[in-house]
Amino acid sequence: MKNKHLAILLLLALAAGSGGCSTQPSQPQTAQTAQDVQAPSAPAIQADSQAYSDEGLKKYTTPEHYLNLGAFVLFGLLSLAAWTFNPSYFELARTFIYNLFTFNFQPLPSVFFTLNLLVGFFTGLSSGATVIISQYYGAQNHENVKKSVHTSIALSLAGGAIIMILGLIFSGAALQLMNTPDDIMKLSLTYMRIYFLGVIPSLIYNMGSGILRAAGDAKRPLYFLIISCFINIILDIFFVVVLKLGVAGVAIATTLSQVASAVMVLAALMRTTDSYKLYIREIRFAPAILKHIIRIGLPAGLQSTMYSVSNLIIQASINAFGTDTIAAWTAYGKVDGIFWMIMGAYGVAITTFAGQNFGAGKYDRIHKSVKVCLGMAAFTSVLLSAVVLLGGRIFFRLFTSDDSVIDIGLHMMAVISPSYITYICIEILGGTARGCGDSIIPMLLTCFGICVLRVIWILVIVPLRPDVSTVAFSYPLTWTVTSVMFIIYYLRGNWLKRRRGLQ
Q1: Under a CB-based contact definition with an 8 Å cutoff, are residues 89 and 83 in contact?
Q2: Domain boundaries, the chain
Q3: Are the beta carbons of 215 and 198 closer than 8 angstroms?
Q4: Separation between Cα atoms, residue 93 and residue 456, nearest integer Å
Q5: 430 and 370 in contact (C-beta within 8 Å)?
Q6: Position 111 confidence tier, pLDDT thresholds 50, 70, 90
Q7: Crossing angle, helix 246-271 and helix 219-236, to 10 degrees?
Q8: What gap in Å lies between CA 381 and CA 13, rounded to an integer?
Q9: What is the pLDDT of residue 499?
């Protein structure tokens, strides 16, 4: 009966766009024993004692968690903190300030898709660390929390160094493969090379904020982000307006802002008295922990890479339509980024919540949180669709005054924005499964339903009907197909039974 009701909820969220599915979770269950927590398939997630208190989970047991999340989203928007869970989170603020003071509205879309190809892989990989830490934290396994934190930071340093070297070497080749127009090639290359010099602090911030969220602290990462964003804006004005450094100045400002965010998150980890306290001298790999992180994070990293590859193909297809279309696509990406910021926030929240409660053996609470998060995501997506469609021309005016560019952008918006709700099941249900340690199936569903199907559409259908709307339709099409697969996958329940060792 529960599955029947949940199926109705999911289908309504997917097809009807109703925001009335805001079922509230009931009071938390009593804590279970360590034998309940430890499953044959997940021996590492074991509590320190036979019985333990629920203090560490109180902040994640009520709808207050999601209300705090809503405040986080709102405050982030007001502070121009778009792309919160993406390494390019300063893009909106950066672009807005740069356009405002220079009236140069030429986008650099190829840059950000190329950056996401490398950085996105690591970000996906590091999500494994967040899941592992949240599970250990929920099980109150303090020793393994400590080992996981130091292994995660070591992974950030090593991964950042590798990405920096690869980025500096292959930036030019990547831009050429994307058919980047000659008139923006030099600027794009300049930005990318400076950005890659600062990629290590960017990864440290993302990993460090993931550690804090895994322990239930979603506020301080927000505060650090806001402060860094304003630092970035001030530096943008200084380097671009005062020093006249152009794109190079924008890149330098971004890099310095990322350094500031990394310093703040490291300071927070070093000053805490909780089990996730960071000791610089103990930053090293713990082989067993690293294995668990890679087991969960590698599929997410591959998924992120597949996303980036499919988006690269889409960007190359867009590039073939000319500069106006490129400009329109990029401007719409800024508006569209608001939706992805919010969905990313929901995804991180449900992943962390599911991980903590899986570690504590509180499986019923996981299902209840899915209902709440789906209801909130459905309401948010419908609201954002309406806001974007009604204010489309106004939003585009923030980034360009060219009427032809705006008209193209509005055409794209009319195809993609009404379909936001078809994506939410991918983010929420996939995040839930990953939080419980089941990352391979969500990766396969996403890679086939979104990435592979999208590439096939671009390579087969678009040449038959070479139009911007045909390219744009690949998004709602693949979201819908993949969401249906995730609903079936979630309702079958194997993702949780398998991790509990019940099958």
Answers
A1: yes
A2: 2-499
A3: no
A4: 34
A5: no
A6: low
A7: 150
A8: 10
A9: 59
| Proportion of the chain in helix, strand, coil states, percent, rounded to 5 | 80, 0, 20
DSSP bridge pairs for 42: 39
Is pLDDT at 82 greater than 90 in this prediction? no
Q: Which residues pair with 39 in a beta bridge?
A: 42
pLDDT of 407 higher than 80 = yes
Cα–Cα dist 74/420, whole Å: 18
In sequence order, the 6+-apart residues with CB closer than 8 A to the CB of 439 are 128, 131, 295, 296, 297, 298, 299, 300, 433
Write the CA distances from 170 to 78, 123, 167, 175, 267, integer angstroms.
36, 20, 5, 9, 33
pLDDT reported for residue 11: 39
CA 17 to chain centre: 22
State both tokens at 10.
């999911």
Lowest mean pLDDT among 46-50, 183-187, 441-445: 46-50
As a three-state string, the secondary structure of 93-115 is HHHHHHHHHHCCCCCCHHHHHHH
* Segment (H or E) for 57: none
Give the pLDDT band of residue 322 (cuts 50, 70, 90): confident
* Cα gap 428→346, rounded to integer Å: 7
Query: At residue 79, does pLDDT exceed 50?
Result: no
Burial class (CB in 10 A: 0-12, 13-18, 19+), 148: buried
Kindly indicate the confidence band of residue 400, based on its pLDDT and cuts at 50, 70 and 90.
confident
d(CA 395, CA 78): 15
Q: Is the pLDDT of residue 422 over 90?
A: yes
pTM, to two decimals: 0.69
